[in-house]
Amino acid sequence: SVSQAPRHHQRHGAGKPVGYSTFTALFLRELYSAVAAGICYARGD
What is the reported pTM? Predict the structure, then answer.
């Protein structure tokens, strides 16, 4: 039903390993941290 769409989308993982979304979120966060640290280092902060 339409009312279940948001919840279904959250755990949507058709054809993907369990935890794919969590892994992606962690990876992006690590990547962002690395980039931010690199920018700070380049600026001398």
Answer: 0.45
